[in-house]
Every structure is written in C-alpha cells, then in structure tokens.
C-alpha cells in the first residue's frame, strides 16, 4: 500500500509539475501577446494619424461597391458625409460634375475588371477645388477580388500652377517663334554654339556673310565668320568665354563679300550649355568716327590759327576748347584753363584781367550771359573795354547743349573806319587843292568825281558837272574850246579804251587860248577811270629853252673833244723832242755830264714819260666818251696778262712795302679783247689800290671765271671810301682818290671803266670807310676761237 501510494504520489507530483509549467508558459505567452497587441494598437493609431495628416485621402472600394474612406473626404467633396457606395459617389449627389462622374465611373470599372491603374483630375461641385484621383486594384490584404484603392489629392494649387505654366509656355513658345523669326530676318550675323562649342544654329545674314549656300552647309562644315579672335581660333575664344561665364565684347577684323571689315563681336554664355553670339559691322562707324575725329582736329587746328578768339563750352558748361588768340586777347594763363573751368569762372577770370565791360551788377550780367546756353538763336553783342578795345562777341548755342563763343577784336577796324572818314575828307580837300585837274569817270562813262581845278580848266558851271554828263556828251560840248576840235574825239576814245581795255593812256591837248595840258587816263581797281590834266604851258616853254641850251652844250662838247684831241696830238711833238734830247744828253752825245746834271736829265725823262702817259690817258678818255676808241680783238690770256703787268707794279709795291698777293684761278681763261687796253685798265685799278693802302698794307688780285665771263678783282685794306667819294669815283677830272690820288687828274677809274665797258664788260666798286675797297672787272668771253687739241691750259700763281 505504501509503495503504491508512493508511485501515485510521484506520478501526481509529475502531473502537477507539468501543469504548473504549462500555466507559467501560458501566462508568459499571454503577457507577450498583450504587449504585441498594445504595440499594434499604437502603430495603428500612428498610421491613422499619418493618414489624417497626409496630403492624400485613401478610399477603399470593395467588390460590392461599398466605400471605406475618412470623414474629411466629405469636406473635399463639399458633402455632409462620405458616400457609402460607388453609385452614390458617381451619382448626382456625389459632389462631382456630370462629366467627371461618368469618367470616374468608367475608370473604377476598368480598374475592377482589368486591374489597370488610372489618374484623373476632377472638380468639386460648387467650389473651385480640383482633386486628383489616382486609382489601382486593391491587394488581397485590403479587399477581396474586385476591390479598388483610390488616393485623392487636393491638386487645386498644382493645377493652377500647371495652368499658369502652360500659359507661360504658350507665351514663351510664341516669343521664341517671334525671336527666331527676328533672328532669321536680322541684317547682322548671329550664331549659337552647343556645349561642344560647335556651330549648331546660324541665321541667313551669317550664311550670306561667309558666302555659303545654306545654314546646313555652314553647320556641317563649321565655316567660321572670323579667322582668328585675339590671335586664337574662334572655338578657343568661345571656350574662354564659356569658362568665364561673362559676356565678351571684342573688335575683330573679318572678310565680308571680299572686303576687309571691322566687326564688333558679342558672345553671351547661356547657362553653361552653349554660347550665342552676333556681330555688328563697325567699319562704317569706325571710319565715320575717325573722319569725325579728323574733322574735329582739323577744325580745332584751324580755329587755333584764327586771329579771332574762340572758346567752346561743353554741355556741362565747362571749357572744352580755346585757341591761342583767346589766351592772348583776355590775358589768361594756360594753367588756369587746363582744369576746364566752368563758364562763370571763365567770366570771373576775364573780369580780373579787365577784359569785359564794367557793370554795376556783375552777378546779374553774368547770369544773363549764362542764358546763352539755352538760347534758340545766336546772340551777338559789342563790348567796349576800359582800355578802348572794341570786341564783337558772337555766341552760338550748340545742339548738344554747349556754347561756342567767338570774340573779334574790331578796334583796328573802327580806327580804320574813322581814319577812312578822315581820309575821305582829306581827299576831298586835297582834290580841291591840287594843281592838276582831276575827274573820275565810272565804267558807264559818266563823270563821277571832280575837283575845282577840273571845273576851272574847262570853265564850266558846277551844275553842268553835277548832272554827271557822259564823256561823249562832255567832250562834244567842249570841242570848240580846243585849238583842234577833232582832239575831243581822241580824248573820248582814249577814255573808252581805259575803261574797257583797262590800259593806261596818255596824251596832250592844246586849248584855243594857247594853254597846253598833258592828260592821262588811268584805270582804277574798282572799274572806274581817273582822268588827270596838268597845265604844261610853262613847262613846254622851258623845255624849248632847255632844248636849245642842250644843243649848244652838245656843240660845245664836240668842240671840247676836238680841242683835247688836237691838243693831245700837238703836245706829243714838243714832248717827243724834249724826251729825245734828254735821252741824248743822258747818253753823253753832248759830252760827259756831272752827276747833278745827270739827275736833272733823269727827272726830265721821268716827267716827260709821266706827261706822255697823262696825254695818252686824256686822249683815250676823250675817245672813250666820243665812242671812237680803237680796239683790237684777239684772244687774251688773262693769267699771262696779269703776270706781264706785275713787273710794272713791282717798284711802287716795294717802295711802300705793300704785300701784293696774286691768285688767278685756271678758270679765268681767255677773253676776246685788246690786250693793251685791258692791261691799262688793270694798271689803273692796281694803281688806285697802291695809292690807297698805307705803308705795309695788303693788296689782293684774284681772278676766276665761268662759261660766259671772267672777272678780275682788286681789293685792298686801305681807308675805304664814303658814299660821297664813291659817287664821284668814276667822274672824270674829279679828286676821287685817297692820299696821293687826290692830286691826280682823276682819270684812273673813269678810264678803266670806259676801257672795260668798251669790251662789253662791267666795272663795279664796293667800299666801306675803314674796311678797304674792292673793284671788280667782269669781262665777257666773246667769240673765242677753239683751242687746239694738243694745247695746254696755262694757270697762274703767286
């Protein structure tokens, strides 16, 4: 019993233990399920909250048409409550317009049967709300087969934005089409480069500029408008523009239609996706601008050279240009004008220099002048300055709002006008006081002006002349007062020739009363003719007397010439005898003479020789004046002639210790002439120099020549001659020398001139007191015979 009980107890204990374990497991499992249930409830509440705050409202339509949806859907549909079935939603009371109801019913049926999703925008009836409904078949976890889940979105704002975007899109599309048409019709080349910077769009102007057939050819072949841009290919320059992301403007040369033109190229990066560009032909603009700059520079250069003062002010009333006359006229300093002062400040500077008229209210006067800038017409004023200067001021408003001022100094003109009036009065008084009769005839032959002497000569009334008679009528009426009436027609014709041919005419008329007048018809610059009459009655009588006296003097001169000639020949006979007997005495034919007698004989011979030379000189001078001086014509080597003459000067030169320098150039050559006469002329010149220079003086004999003439120059460093002595140097028998020359006959230089002029040459004298004298003998070559080929040219030295 005891053992059985133990077993039972063991078994019972085991069962109790199992029962206890099962209870503990059941308790733990219940607690776990409870915790899961609470978590699921929290998740469901959270999802419900999310659905309530979501922008879309879910709607579940079961296969039987029953609808499950949150209550806020009724507010979106404008209903009191959510429809319970699809038939209510798509019915008249479902809150949707009729067109939307039918379309939505078809979409739901298609989703139930075909399992296709859909999206449709519907309007809420009675409001402006737009709903977007997206539908799809519901999963098996939501509904049985045939269920549909709908998501309803409030797309009111989105639809409005879409409508706005569509409207903007249409406007942009229209604008793009208009812009494309404008670009295509634009006269300037335009292009677009894609991301790879290749040409992808060009207009017709671009195609024409590169002389291509079509835009497709340009894009396909990549024909560039510019060869290089800043020394780089166009694509490289475009890359630089794209990387910088800035609008680039360049002036680039291009060849258009075979002509080199300057283009203004503009490239605009478009959002990093490409570059749009266009080019404007600036060649004409640049040429016009350069031409304008040149014209402005030329105009300012011209204005700067004007004697009138010019100042120009810009639109801001600041000084922009002035010329040198402006600075000089108003005594302004250039540094005061370099900062371009304003108009008022320039007037102040001019006032400080006393170069504007004095006014009591200067600010008001200056303010009035400021109105020149806005004047519609040019202004002109006359300013009288304190120093007596008269200025003419011309103010020209400029189209750009500036002002051009021109100041003309009319002081001299006014003075000249006053002087002219004075001269007119003086002329009238002078005309009336002249001894000559003066009449001025107009181009039509009428008498215009006359003086009282003219009226007195013709003895006519003032009224006759005041009627301004024509020359024809006047001379016809005066014909009976002339010694020979036909001379009236001569005077008339000469006056007509003077006014028509503009040539001066002269003549002489004799009146019936014996008066004689010389007249002259002189053309005047204004087309008139001046008629002058001079009473030469007394002069004519004196002329006759002088003519008679001149004839008597000419006859006396002939007698003098004949006397001198005969006297020269008569003096030679006893002089020859004296010289011959003196030479015989010196030679001892009469016996040996003492030394004293020898000196006397030598003196007699010297005096005879000198007297013989003087007689020859007088004879030659007389023959020269009479034109009967005999000349031999033969080639004369001037260098040889000079050296031959030099021995004759040696004694006189050594006596006064004179330095004689002879410099005869080879170009002196030969002349056709009388060697004896030319030697004598040269002797006279050198003798003149020897007598002039003091002891230890210097004489230079220089010779040179040209193709048609040769010259010999004798110069000295003597005391020279004053103007009075030079005037008498070539007058025969005058004391024209210096020192010893004053005691001579005065025939040296006159005879030298006659001998030179007899050869067709010229003798000139240049002298200054204290500077010496220079005599130049210029001789023509004449008809020289040709030199033999084997001959040599002989020169001369010291």
UniProtKB/TrEMBL annotation:
Coiled coil ranges: none
Superkingdom of origin organism: Bacteria
Q: Which Gene3D superfamilies match?
A: 1.10.287.130, Histidine kinase-like ATPase, C-terminal domain, PAS domain
- From the Swiss-Prot or TrEMBL record, what is one GO molecular function term? phosphorelay sensor kinase activity
Q: Which SUPFAM superfamilies match?
A: ATPase domain of HSP90 chaperone/DNA topoisomerase II/histidine kinase (SSF55874), Homodimeric domain of signal transducing histidine kinase (SSF47384), PYP-like sensor domain (PAS domain) (SSF55785)
EC number, as in UniProt = 2.7.13.3
Sorted alphabetically, which InterPro entries does this protein's record hold?
A: HATPase_C_sf, HATPase_dom, His_kinase_dom, HisK_dim/P_dom, HisK_dim/P_sf, PAS, PAS-like_dom_sf, Sensor_HK_Regulatory
Q: Where is this region: Disordered?
A: 779-798
Name the reaction it catalyses. ATP + protein L-histidine = ADP + protein N-phospho-L-histidine
Instruction: Report the residue ranges that make up the Histidine kinase domain in this protein.
Output: 566-783
Tell me if Membrane is a UniProt keyword of this record. Answer: no
Ordered alphabetically, the record's keywords are: Kinase, Phosphoprotein, Transferase, Two-component regulatory system
Q: Does the keyword Electron transport apply?
A: no
* PANTHER family per record: HISTIDINE KINASE 1, TWO-COMPONENT HISTIDINE KINASE
What's the protein name?
A: histidine kinase
């Amino acid at each position: 019993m005891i053992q059985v009980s133990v077993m039972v107890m063991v078994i019972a204990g085991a069962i109790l233990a199992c029962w206890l374990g099962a209870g503990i497991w059941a308790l733990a499992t219940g607690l776990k399920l409870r915790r899961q249930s609470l978590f699921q409830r929290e998740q469901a509440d959270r999802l419900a909250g999310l659905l309530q705050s979501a922008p879309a409202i879910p709607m579940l339509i079961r296969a039987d048409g029953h609808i499950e949806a949150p209550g806020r859907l009724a507010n979106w549909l404008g209903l009191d409550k959510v429809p319970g079935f699809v038939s209510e939603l798509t019915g008249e009371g479902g809150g949707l317009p009729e067109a939307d109801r039918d379309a939505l019913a078809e979409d739901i049926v298609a989703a139930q049967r075909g399992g296709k999703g859909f999206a449709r925008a519907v309007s809420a009836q009675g409001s402006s709300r737009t709903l977007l409904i997206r539908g799809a078949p519901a999963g098996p976890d939501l509904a049985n087969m045939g269920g549909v889940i709908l998501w309803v979105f409030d797309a009111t704002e989105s639809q409005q934005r879409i409508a706005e975007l569509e409207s903007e899109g249409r406007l942009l599309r229209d604008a793009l089409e208009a812009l494309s048409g404008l670009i295509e019709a634009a006269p300037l080349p335009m292009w677009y480069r894609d991301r790879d910077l290749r040409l992808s769009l060009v207009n017709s102007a671009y195609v024409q500029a590169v002389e291509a057939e079509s835009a497709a050819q340009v894009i396909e072949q990549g024909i560039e408008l510019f060869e290089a841009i800043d020394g780089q290919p166009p694509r490289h320059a475009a890359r630089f523009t794209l990387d910088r992301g800035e609008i680039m403007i360049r002036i680039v040369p291009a060849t258009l239609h075979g002509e080199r033109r300057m283009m203004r190229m503009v490239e605009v990066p478009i959002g990093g996706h490409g570059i749009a560009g266009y080019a404007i032909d600036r060649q004409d603009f640049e040429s016009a601008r350069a031409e304008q700059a040149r014209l402005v520079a030329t105009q300012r250069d011209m204005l700067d050279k004007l004697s009138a003062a010019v100042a120009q002010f810009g639109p801001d009333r600041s000084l922009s240009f002035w010329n040198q006359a402006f600075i000089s006229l108003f005594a302004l300093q250039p540094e005061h004008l370099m900062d371009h002062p304003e108009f008022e400040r320039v007037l102040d500077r001019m006032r400080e220099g006393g170069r504007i008229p004095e006014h009591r209210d200067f600010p008001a006067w200056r303010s009035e002048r400021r109105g020149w800038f806005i004047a519609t017409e040019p202004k002109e004023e006359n300013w009288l300055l304190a120093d007596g200067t008269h200025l003419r001021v011309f103010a020209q408003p400029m189209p750009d709002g500036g002002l051009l001022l021109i100041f003309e100094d009319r002081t001299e003109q006014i003075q000249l006008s006053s002087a002219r009036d004075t001269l007119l009065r003086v002329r009238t008084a002078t005309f009336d006081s002249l001894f000559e009769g003066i009449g001025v005839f107009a181009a039509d032959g009428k008498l215009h002006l006359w003086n009282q002497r003219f009226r007195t000569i013709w003895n006519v009334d003032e009224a006759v002349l005041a009627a301004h008679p024509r020359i024809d009528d006047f001379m016809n009426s005066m014909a009976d007062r002339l010694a020979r009436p036909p001379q009236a027609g001569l005077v008339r014709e000469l006056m007509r020739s003077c006014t028509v041919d503009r040539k001066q005419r002269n003549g002489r008329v004799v009146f019936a009363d014996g008066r004689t007048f010389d007249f002259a018809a002189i053309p005047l610059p204004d087309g008139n003719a001046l008629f002058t009459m001079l009473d030469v009655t007394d002069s004519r009588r004196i002329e006759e007397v002088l003519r008679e006296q001149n004839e008597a003097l000419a006859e006396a001169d002939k007698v003098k010439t004949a006397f001198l000639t005969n006297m020269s020949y008569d003096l030679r006979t006893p002089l020859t005898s004296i010289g011959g007997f003196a030479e015989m005495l010196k030679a001892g034919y009469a016996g040996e003479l003492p030394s004293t007698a020898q000196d006397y004989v030598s003196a007699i011979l010297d005096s005879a020789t000198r007297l013989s030379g003087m007689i020859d000189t007088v004879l030659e001078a007389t023959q020269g004046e009479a034109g009967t001086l005999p000349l031999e014509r033969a080639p004369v080597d001037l260098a040889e002639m000079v050296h031959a003459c030099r021995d004759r000067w040696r004694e006189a030169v050594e006596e006064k210790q004179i330095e004689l320098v002879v410099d005869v150039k080879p170009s002196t050559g030969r002349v056709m002439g009388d060697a004896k006469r030319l030697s004598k002329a040269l002797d006279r010149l050198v003798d003149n120099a020897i007598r002039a220079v003091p002891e230890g003086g210097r004489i230079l004999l220089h010779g040179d020549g040209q193709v048609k003439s040769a010259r010999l120059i004798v110069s000295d460093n003597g005391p020279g001659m004053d103007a009075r002595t030079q005037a008498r140097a070539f007058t025969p028998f005058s004391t024209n020398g210096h020192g010893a020359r004053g005691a001579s006959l005065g025939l040296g230089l006159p005879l030298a001139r006659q001998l030179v002029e007899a050869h067709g040459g010229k003798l000139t004298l240049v002298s200054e007191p204290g500077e010496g004298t220079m005599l130049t003998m210029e001789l023509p070559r004449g008809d020289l015979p040709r030199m033999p080929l084997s001959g040599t040219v002989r020169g001369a030295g010291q």
